[in-house]
# Entry
Amino acid sequence: MDEFELNENQTSRGMRLIFGYLCVFLAFVGGITLLPLLIIPFFPGEWICFPAFLIPGGSALILGTVLGFLLTKGRQKGKLAKFQDSVLLVFIWLTTVLVGALPFFLADKVAFFGGNDGALSMSFSESVFESVSGYCAVGFTVLHGFTGAGEPVFSSFLDAGQGYCSHVFLLYRAITQFFGGVGLVLVVASAVSDRFGMQLFATEGHNDRLLPNLAKTAKATFGIYMIIIVLGTISMWLFGMDWFESLCHSIAGMATGGFSTRISGFYQYSNPNPILGFVSPVGIEITIMIVMILGATSFLLIWNALTMKWKNVIKDAELRFMGFVILLFTILGLFLVMYQFDDGKGQDFATSLRYSVFQMISCVTTTGFGNAPSVIILGQGVVALSIILMIIGGGVGSTAGAIKQLRVVIALKYLWWSILHKFSPSRFRYPHYFMRAGKPVEVTDDLYKENVNYIILYLVVLMVPTIILVFLPKGGDGSYFNATESLYLVSSSLSGTGNTIVDFLGLRISVFNNGGNAMWSYYLVLWIMSVCMFLGRLEILPVYYALRRISTLVLKRQAI
# Structure
């Protein structure tokens, strides 16, 4: 039967089923795009931003609703065939990031409606990059503004006297990370029944069920997500951060996204402007570190903690591994910052500890926030440690990315068991299992191979764009990305961290001021990193399965 045909019972199958589901998500994304407009009553001076959101958001909402109705009217939904769940998931995320890019792209192009944002002037490539970074919960940004002479309009987002970006767009960036971090499918699944498809739910990375029912599991996960964001917002507000910025940072922290309302990130609060009033930078940093850790912890473990099953949490192999890694790398980072900070000038113990623990937690949770002037000023040793942590990443079933800690735990345990087996009597066998949320999980050969294969695949995907980047001009001055910059950027992109040692705003200014000679390279870097962010968010394999399914369909049609 053709992919577009129906059976005699008028059941949607194949591509018709895929596009039917896709239209539902298109309408959903349209609604997401309209959400930032709700804040305009609080900042009435920003009403001029509404066309940039109304045009794409309203169009997607209407188009998705109408097409979805036409494709599904009077038909039952069939079951997704092999790899069709991956095709649908890839289409959902591609549609989301493309629609999500339009407000950024239109910001300075809708003056006939009354003006534009002023701080936003983005090309299509930059708009897509910002959207992918938001929905994939990464945190890279190319937010900028330029005058005709090429001078930057601002050097930070909300800093008084240094330029300005509207609250509407800053909230929009936070909203993209809110939905992207927890997962688009999970949010929709929280409002529908199991019939929507456990396949799609699992394909997005939600492998742990908190409750027997899919919809209830999604609701519980979403509820945990919301509660932590609210508590984080209140806590940072009590420590002196503005309520709006507290909300945006709490969302980005729990989503392990990393979008900040300030270019200088949390370093801004270490040197507060008098206009900010009372600020406790230590209190704010402790709060956001807790939020980041919770975001990188499996929702299954958080659920066990909330239901008072503390033994299940304490004995969990992945959580113990996270605690060990944070402690070890923080100690190493502490001494490195003390002696390597600012090219060997060093830093005092207290400040070194603050920088080290924050940077290590930010990287292992794949969030990307920073409380130091820059990552590179912390020293090359911290840069190396950060790369390792970004490759390891957070917990399975969390909002974090990268290889994931559980896969690393399984690989390390199996390696240890293999070494023990070499030195043990032939009849002696060690139990091959680990504790997961209070339950012993046997590490079979198939499970081990599956995890190791993914680790190898991840490292291969990591190396390819890293090698490509070293051949690309970094600016219009003839310089190139060095190996450290390339590896750091790709590690950060693929893991969804968004922590960077390259100044994108400075990079664009450099290209612009040199006549735009390397503008092609600048845009190519953005697209390479966008692909890496996309692959990392979907954990590579669903993208491969989708391409395989689509290529098979195309080849069949050509044969006909």
